[in-house]
Amino acid sequence: MTDTTATAELLSLFPTGILVASIPEVDNAALARAIRGLPPAETQAHGLISGDGVSTYGTGHNLHRRPEFKPLVDALGLRLAAFARELGADLERMNLLMADCWSNIQQPGSHVVQHRHPNSLISGAYYVEAPANCGRIVFESPLDAHRMSDFPYYARQTPFAMKRYAVDPIPGRVVLFPSWLSHRTEPNRSNGERIVVSFNVSAQISGADRERPRAG
Ligand SMILES: [Fe+2]
Known about the structure:
The protein is of the alpha+beta class.
């Protein structure tokens, strides 16, 4: 029998990078206290949270400028840089800038509806409190056209077969993803609160490169 794999190369192109990392150096109890202690005027219902939940999105988006969030922001900066380098980004010529940072507190039964983060490069979610079954974050495949014609059956799960991918929220875990990638959360089926710090990151072109005309 001819070995067709010996002379063939399967290219895996156009992948979507998602980084899942743990941040053990951050004090989640202190963060939870800081988030629960935010002024009521800065927390409000959020159109993307279905059910009972509050967010500081829409009231400045500026948790990253508060001193009590500095340890988290510093820790996130290291993971963001590592993620960008893995994707091939040239951090000698630009800085990653946390542009927005906000908190969500979701009560049992609530979920976050499908959305993207416009006007941003990388987005992320850091889990401060996440009881078991409080709802995974679910990313949808951006390959919409793929669904027009697909194998009716798959014998095994591969990145080629995936329509969506879910990540468990674990306290101390951060998930970084391209801001254009559509996502939602499953309902919080726990009896506790699901507390998340979310953020948007952009790239600021640095030094001489800022003056240089950009081709393309
Ligand atoms: Fe989001």
